[in-house]
């Protein structure tokens, strides 16, 4: 049985759509590295604006990548945690980091 190139292209497009934004992977990486509160996440990603982080977190929650936990304290405490589904992306991020390091060495060492 041959490969279904149409299905493969659709799957690649879905993946690229998911990771295509400038901030999606850094946000996932930050949360998976233990940052749970909005300001912790924001501080761990240089250059991201409050508005962009808020948009990314909402979008990721809608896509079942994050769970938003609200604790009725004073002031209200909100924490984000990666879902198990989100964690399945961790190996892909690790491989992207490895590839990026290797690529940088190839380029720098000429």
From TrEMBL:
InterPro entries xrefs: HTH_HxlR, WH-like_DNA-bd_sf, WH_DNA-bd_sf
Name of protein: Transcriptional regulator, HxlR family
Molecular function via GO: DNA binding
Keyword Transcription in annotation: yes
Residue span, HTH hxlR-type domain: 10-108
Transcription recorded as keyword: yes
Domain of life where this protein originates: Bacteria
Phylogenetic placement of the source organism: Bacteria, Pseudomonadati, Bacteroidota, Flavobacteriia, Flavobacteriales
Keywords noted in UniProt: DNA-binding, Transcription, Transcription regulation
